[in-house]
Amino acid sequence: MILLDGKKTAADLKQEIALSVQKLKKQGKKIPHLAAVLVGENGASMTYVNAKVKACELVGFKSTLIKLPEDTTEEKLLQEIETLNNNKNVDGFIVQLPLPKHINEQKIVMAVNPDKDVDGFHPVNVGKMTLDLPCFLPATPFGILELLERYNVETSGKNVVIIGRSHIVGRPMSILMSQKRTAGNATVTVAHSRTKNLKEITLQADIIVAALGKPEFLTGAMVKNGVTIIDVGITRVEDTTKKRGYRLAGDVHFESVAPKSAFITPVPGGVGPMTIAMLMKNTLLACERKEN
Ligand code: GUN
After folding, report:
1. Helix or strand or coil: residue 70?
2. Band (266; pLDDT cuts 50, 70, 90)
3. Is the separation of the CB atoms in 207 and 195 below 8 Å?
4. Same-domain pairing of 103 and 153
5. Which pLDDT tens digit goes with each residue over 174-229?
6. Which domain holds residue 261?
7. Ligand 1: which residue has its CA nearest to atom 1?
8. 92-142 residue pLDDT tens
């Protein structure tokens, strides 16, 4: 069993990005600038956004964090987005999801200028991705592709089963892995909450991407020997033995699945750090594209 070490791979990537920033600096070019908008005080969202800002500092990007109260109106948030769309200093920005219930998420995503949409969530970027055109790939799927590539995991002709059809992970992952690319050319099955006989399907899988958000859902009895496991889940599960009162659990029951796996991502330290590194990569691309 080989651990797909997202923490180390992300650190390597950020080092590469930091070198690119130094080069831009030497050439007297613009330094990439990422802005993040956080609405409300969702604990997990605050953790993620802080990690994104920290990553910017590490690679040498400028960053701006815009914190808005929970009761921010949709109109006010749309105004903030318009300001960021028009701000020439900002190369890319994200609006951290989920948003409070009174705000229409789709409307917000559609308001972001696709050229600054480093999350790759805007329909223009999703459409371009589907058509194999240059675009911003959503950071989590992009990170998974990068991890598979850097560990030379063979995907061509393999049976890939993706559990979950979210717009952020499952759906784009299914499109990308079926395309002609290094971590692609796979035969992809998308399983979801209405799938029947899931175990029969996962037992056929060479690679499983678990992205359904149910802690320790995928167990050893559901996978074959030699499988590759990508665990996208990261749920806070109450744990009174921990000082902070919770532990982080993936969608995979690691103890029973790992012994049967050829490759497996840990949680934490697998997909999570890769997501942040790929957001940095997209921001660098946004800056370079704007300059050229
Ligand atoms: N919420 C969970 N994942 C993401 C992400 O990749 N980007 C944003 N903006 N929000 C998220």
Report:
1. coil
2. very high
3. no
4. no
5. 999 999 999 999 999 999 999 999 999 999 999 999 999 999 999 999 999 999 99
6. 139-272
7. 97
8. 999 999 999 999 999 999 999 999 999 999 999 999 999 999 999 999 999
pLDDT at residue 291, rounded to an integer: 76
Alpha-carbon torsion, ordered 169, 283, 135, 11, to 10 deg: -50
Mutate to test the pocket of ligand 1, among 68, 97, 118, 173 (most ligand atoms within 8 A of CB): 97
Q: Per the structure, how many domains does the chain have?
A: 2
Cα–Cα distance measured from residue 82 to residue 87, given in angstroms and rounded to the nearest whole number: 9
The angle subtended at Cα 281 by Cα 250 and Cα 185, nearest 5°, is: 65
User: Ligand 1 atom closest to Cα of 36?
Assistant: 9
pLDDT of residue 50: 98
Residue nearest to atom 8 of ligand 1 (CA): 96
Q: How far is C-alpha 117 from the chain's CA centre? A: 14
Same domain, yes or no: 85 and 162:
no
Amino acid 290: pLDDT: 84
Among candidate residues 52, 116, 231, 281, the one labeled active-site is: 52
Residues touching ligand 1 (Cβ under 6 Å) are 94-97, 119, 139-140, 168, 275
Distance CA 117, CA 109 (A): 9
**191 and 265 assigned to the same domain:** yes
CATH number at residue 166: 3.40.50.720
Tell me which of 96, 117, 251, 281 is the catalytic residue: 96
